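Run log, item B.
One chain of 320 residues. Sequence copied directly from the ordering sheet:
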Amino acid sequence: MPNKFPIPRPSTTAGLDPDMRPAYDPGPLEAASELHAGNVDIAANVYKSSMGRAKIHGWVAGSLDEAHELVQELVKRPTPVGEFLTFAGASCYCKAGKLKGKSRWRHALRGWFRLGHVPCVQEYFNMCWLHNRHFQVPLPMVGGVIRRHGLPAYQFLITRQVLGSTTLDAALENEPSPGRRELLRELAQEVGRMHALSFVHHDLFPRNILVAPTDWPRRILFLDLWAGGDCVHFRSPAYDLGGFLLESAHLLEAEERREFLENYRASSQSQGRATPSNLLDLIGQQYRKLHARLTQQPERLRGHALPEDWATMERTLRAD
């Protein structure tokens, strides 16, 4: 029998006066403890109804039928869904929405030529792949697509909620110096291991990295994984690193950036995959492209100032 899924519980509550213990709802944790911690075994069911032909992937007994019932309500909504809800007896996050126009045809072609799935289903498979290799991600519950006349029309993904977590950009702004250094070290090690296994995240930005509560043994989790993978694609590890350095330019000190790359190199090498000698040049190529995109599309800055150009960034990275 598989072991129960180990849900981290607040270690700070032990030995405290009951009136001083932080309040939290144990219900979702107790329900979630019934989930196993072994490999996520992917299954799929096909359902036909008035909304179309739905194919749903999952692994928890009964969750595929539950997802089909849920999506019949979600598909009626006129706007995309992004909300927390109770699913399979636990607190989860659901994102769902329609596929329209060029996007609908683009993802249909990807499927016909076996180049990938619609984003929510691809993200489900990518999260399962990472979970099964001991990376931390919000536990993927189900991912699915509804097709009409052979074309994808609606997609959805449900993952377990990570209670008490925050994004890396928010965590770095509030974490004291020793904690910042540890978070960045863990992130560099995990990204190095990920790349050594030929998996490219594709959108490795601070907002797509979750930081778990301090009582978790490992605190880094990865989000928004649909565009990457371990398959043949057009992005390289340097794309991930260039994007991270660009999007975290306002968050990190020069020494923290250098230390991040040193830990990344060490992690890659420990996995038997040495980083290229011209890694900084490769990162620079991607950094400049992404920097130009921010210049042309300032709405992507989300209110932040335009990061420094590569020439300035490179000088800080090469400094002794």
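Observations after the first pass:
- The mean pLDDT is 87.
- The radius of gyration is 21 Å.
Flagged for discussion on Thursday.
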